[in-house]
Design goal:
328 residues, alpha/beta, 9 strands, CE7, carboxylic ester hydrolase activity, Cephalosporin-C deacetylase
Length: 328
Amino acid sequence: MPFTDLPLVELERFRPDVREPADFDAFWAKTLSKSRAAGAGRGADLVPAETPITEVVVEDLTFPGFGGEPVKGWVVRPRRRPDDAPLPAVVEFNGYNGGRGIAGERTGWALAGNVHVFMDTRGQGSGWGTGGDTPDPHGGGPAAHGWMTRGIEDPRDHYYRRVYTDAALLVEHVRALPFVDAGRVSVTGGSQGGGIAIAAGALASAAAVLPDVAFLCAWEHGMQVATSDPFTELARYLAVHRDALETVLTTASYLDGVNFARRITAPALFSVALMDDVVPPSTTFAAYNALASEDHEIAVYPFNGHEGGQTRQWLRQVEFLRARGLAV
């Protein structure tokens, strides 16, 4: 498999011109405020999950997300005595068209001593894995196959406005759990999950942000250079809606991971793979190079594709958080 993008030396200084709306912060503040109000009085609801796993606690999570709508997830945590101190938490978001799956599929963070929260991605869960449980009860205008162009005519209607809101509010709900140390809630995810983690990290001021092979960054550049979905969904849409480019770019500017990265001051550990033929490495570097954080690192996997560093990157994440007192 060949390298798919710019040479590493150019990626390290790649800063595309990503437009930023003047009302970006106001747009998101209003979005979150309205959804908090819609879900007022309802916190995260946890019930024991049906699972044969006994050595860690696995709970079925429901919380009010965008518009107060119920969103599912899993909480996995060590078995602790009632008098033990609250634990750090890692909130994880999933890849494109995957769901939360079956209870107990992901136990690594809990087995390492932390609370792990895994969010279902609304409307997704039928492309791979073992399914999802959160509908997206919203329609939209004409769209290409996939999620990138759903509601593309207006940022208020776009699919990722709802998903990012779910993610940011989940971080807030996790902070309120009695067994979680509210000052040590970090976010992570791969591909789409990495893009969601960047947005949630900025909107909810997470303690640390750890995206892997992050998608949803530098949308305009991505749709120009990507050779496969999901970025090519935008190109297919514009091939039909030939006069919609300005509309697409305006909507994308409210959702672009580069604009969220500009607002992240927390410690950040990114990863990228230089043979990635799904998410062009330059789009991930665009967000990484835009970080406001002074404490940031990026792990580069030169000979990997979209799978990235996998478990090796997880080990780096554990070390990164422990070094900063953000994980057990």
